[in-house]
Amino acid sequence: MRHIRYSKFVPDPFDSLSTEDLLNMLEDFLLQSGFESPYYGFSEMDQEQTMERLRRALLEALQERDMIPPELLEEMMQNPKDARLNELLERLMERLAEEGYITIENPGKPQGQLTQPLPGQSDRLEGRAKFEITDKALDFLGFRTLKDLLGSLGKSSFGRHDTRELATGVESDGSSRRYEFGDTMNLDVNATLLSAIQRNGLRTPLELDYQDLQVRQCEYQSSCATVLMLDCSHSMILYGEDRFTPAKKVALALTHLIRTQYPGDSLHMVLFHDSAEQIPLSALARVQVGPYYTNTREGLRLAQRILARQGKDMRQIVMITDGKPSALTLEDGRIYKNAFGLDPLVVTETLHEVQHCRRNGILVNTFMLASDFSLVNFVQKVTEICHGKAYFTTPYTLGQYLLMDYMQKKVKHIH
User: Beta strand pairing status for 314-321 and 224-231?
Assistant: First the structure.
């Protein structure tokens, strides 16, 4: 006789959590800037993105939100290794990997003839397993940040860069005009036929000539090439405030905005510190501050080289910083550093580079995360030279000002 054994159903307390909820909970961990690290993100002491660290971050996030049942916490305190909570956390991390938000790099098998790890060795191998967040996760975090920023501004929709000019295109927003070589063949049939009738009279067959062709006009929408210069010097996490993580979130939001709403635009990322370097947008999440000075001139030089390769109507540099320029690359390649006050040599050479930007038709907009009087004076000189805009803001309002500036292109100063 066949028997069926029933057991008590134990519900999964995390079934209601979606992967998007998990990403929201882990956002600060995935985009950490080094502010929480006692080593301030020094490259030689940078902690690896291991699965064990991800598990601990997920556990802390669930505890902060009181989402773990008391019996699971009590079980884990009594027997940490065999607790059911560990199994549930593993399932959550597997869901993130299955839906393409993280990739897991498992360590290779131990060398030798062993097919199974020795007792205790499996734990070490599991701790060596690494993970990387994917472009899909970065895109989601950028969309979430963008939605929050625009929601706080009361904006429900946003469009492309409108101008006062007219051009031929698909959308017929303007009047018709005579076709010229190179125009988009968005033919106004009625106006074309009327022109032929006025020239030859109403007769059949109707003869069309080149001069009869009329095309519809639409509002000309320009394209923009943007280089986002992000300061990753040590001062971005000093004085008990993390100013680097908000800047990274704004960069992700700007990336999502351009990709979805301004497909003709381009965005490039430049980090400036002792020197300057261009990084892919996919590497933004892993960027951290370091024991660096602020070489603003080198960042401007690299940004100009990038923009010189972009065939866009508008070219601009968006610079996010919180400190004064304190480093300079000399002609022989050595880096001159001075962290005390505004060094005349560093400031002079930096302002000369701003003048080069103006001569090349590049707009420089500065978002300053500080309000020191000497820094305000320096930023005002930068805006006077390049006819750009200066925003003296905070990490909490940085995203609002930056996105509104990008979308509206208003010429004004916010102090």
Answer: parallel
Whether the Cβ atoms of residue 298 and residue 276 lie closer than 8 Å to each other: yes
Q: Is 195 helix (H, G, I), strand (E, B) or coil?
A: helix
For the residues 213-235, what does the mean pLDDT come to?
A: 79
Q: Report the percentage of the chain scoring pLDDT > 90.
A: 14
Strands 390-392 and 102-105: unpaired
Pairing of strands 214-221, 390-392: unpaired
Residue 345 contacts by C-beta under 8 Å, 6 or more apart in sequence?
Answer: 328, 336
Domain that holds residue 319: 139-160+223-408
Among 193, 221, 249, the domain-final residue is 221
User: CA distances (Å), 88 to each of 15, 62, 177, 253, 276, in order?
Assistant: 10, 12, 67, 32, 43
> Which of 171, 193, 221 is the C-terminal boundary of a domain?
221
CA 354 centroid distance within chain: 24
* DSSP tag of 414: B
pLDDT single digits (tens) 65-97: 888 888 887 877 777 666 788 888 888 888 888
Pairing of strands 276-279, 266-272: antiparallel
Q: Which residues of 106-142 are buried (b: 16+ CB within 10 A; e: fewer)?
A: eeeeeeeeeeeeeeeeeeeebeeebbebbeebbbbbb
Threshold 0.70, pTM exceeds: no
Half-sphere exposure of 4 (CA within 13 A, CB side): 1
Report yes or no on 1 lying in a domain. no
Q: How many domains does the chain fold into?
A: 3
